[in-house]
Write a structure and sequence with these properties.
The complex is a heterodimer of chains A (89) and B (292).
Chain A (H helix, E strand, L loop, with lengths): L6 E3 L7 E6 L6 E7 L2 H18 L5 E7 L4 H14 L4
Parallel strand pairs in A: 3-4
Antiparallel strand pairs in A: 1-2, 2-4
Helix pairs in contact in A: 1-2
Chain B lengths: L6 E6 L3 H6 L7 E5 L9 H14 L6 E5 L9 H8 L6 E4 L4 H18 L7 E6 L2 H5 L1 H5 L5 E6 L1 H8 L11 H14 L2 E4 L8 H13 L4 E4 L5 H7 L4 H19 L5 E3 L2 E3 L1 H16 L5
Parallel strand pairs in B: 1-2, 1-8, 2-3, 3-4, 4-5, 5-6, 6-7, 7-8
Antiparallel strand pairs in B: 9-10
Helix pairs in contact in B: 11-12
Classes of the chains: A alpha+beta (89), B alpha/beta (292).
């Protein structure tokens, strides 16, 4: 499934993550991540975003994420909310 | 989850930082709020966040409650329940509760528990009564569902409806609190007092909570972590009460051995109600972790 409409969820604040979903012309998930803990946990955050999108059946999207140190449950919740708001679930 | 509900701490359902840290303050129950503290535009995000945290983080030993939106006159309440019941919170709290709302919520939970294969009535209900009609109908509300674990008084809406101010003395809540204590005691459920609004005023909280306890309420809502310690202390038996209760129970056991029906302790008669109260104090003390 492709994301066809922009949407967002979460806040740019400590322990939260702001997710901005946009359509991607290519059939792939592209992630741009800014995080206060990117050095330590950047790969894990990207992995959680990709896994959540895959679980929801999203195969094409451009994701911009500003992370303030969110735990996995919060990342999953914000990604799911953004996908729902894009009207894809 | 324990049977102790001295303090019930409200936590806004939209802030991950507050949600995930809420278990460290010693509250007996935590209420993740999807109602007043969440903007209409963020209701969808909050319920997904609350579902995920309940699913993924370990809150064992604490009663986890979710305050939903009203189920009868709000488009959000049913969605809250549908989203979250599957991760099995200990209870839902229904705001602006009346008999109809409690029955609607109980019916929804019946259906979900059956579908999910959960034990029937494993998800409890707390009713938040906030109107004059609800206070007057407390007897019916307390009997509206066998899922009901307690009723909380919501004094802000109540006093607003009455057109009166809340005061530090709290005389304006005397009837509602007394009635709530009587009804809940009679129904065998907990009577939880309204929150104290000024989180900076520790003396005010101490007085307010003491008033509620003296009228028979069993616990109190907290709206800030710093209120939890005071509430827990005030709604726990005092050291003097525990010592006296221990003496009473020991004296009763001794009298039973000797075949005596009535006894005196420190010059005061100990009869069945006094003995029962002493047993209850010791049980509460044990639950609160006080050495007995």
């Amino acid at each position: 499934m492709r994301i066809t409409k922009s949407s967002e969820a979460g806040k740019q604040e400590a322990n939260d993550i702001f997710i901005w979903l946009e359509p991607n012309e290519k059939e792939e998930i592209e992630i741009k991540l800014e995080s206060v803990v990117k050095l330590q946990f950047g790969k894990q955050i990207e992995k959680v975003i990709r896994e959540t999108l895959a679980k929801l059946g999203v195969t094409s999207a451009s994701v911009t994420a500003w992370d303030g140190g969110a735990l996995d449950y919060a990342i999953r919740a914000r990604v799911e909310t953004a996908v729902r708001r894009a009207g894809e679930v | 989850m324990s049977d102790l509900r001295r303090s019930m701490l409200f936590v806004p359902g939209f802030r991950p930082g507050m949600l995930q840290n809420s278990s460290i303050y010693g509250a007996d129950s935590i209420i993740f709020d999807l109602e007043d503290s969440v903007a209409v535009t963020e209701k969808d995000a909050a319920r997904v966040l609350v579902r995920n945290i309940l699913q993924e983080l370990d809150f064992s030993g604490i009663e986890m409650v979710v305050r939903i939106n009203p189920v009868t006159d709000s488009p959000f309440g049913e969605e809250d329940v549908a989203e979250i019941a599957g991760v099995r919170p200990d209870a839902f709290m229904l705001p602006k509760a009346d008999e109809e709302g409690i029955r609607v919520l109980a019916d929804m939970l019946d259906e979900i528990e059956q579908k999910e294969g959960f034990e029937q009535e494993s998800i409890k209900i707390f009713a938040l009564v906030e109107s004059t009609s609800a206070v007057l109908n407390l007897c019916s509300i307390a009997k509206a569902s066998t899922r009901l674990a307690g009723i909380m008084l919501g004094a802000e809406d109540l006093t607003a409806e009455l057109g009166i101010k809340r005061t530090l003395q709290g005389n304006e809540l005397l009837y509602a609190r007394s009635h709530l204590a009587m009804v809940c005691k009679s129904a065998g459920i907990d009577a939880i007092d309204t929150p104290f609004g000024d989180v900076e005023d520790r003396e005010g909280l101490e007085y307010d909570a003491s008033q509620a306890k003296s009228l028979g309420l069993t616990g109190k809502a907290a709206i800030h972590p710093r209120q939890v310690g005071t509430i827990n202390r005030l709604f726990s038996p005092s050291p003097e009460e525990v010592i006296y209760a221990g003496k009473v129970v020991a004296a009763v056991r001794e009298a039973e051995k000797e075949g005596k029906g009535v006894l005196a302790l420190d010059g005061k008669m100990v009869d069945a109600p006094v003995a029962a109260r002493a047993e209850k104090v010791l049980k509460q003390a044990k639950l609160a972790g006080i050495e007995v």
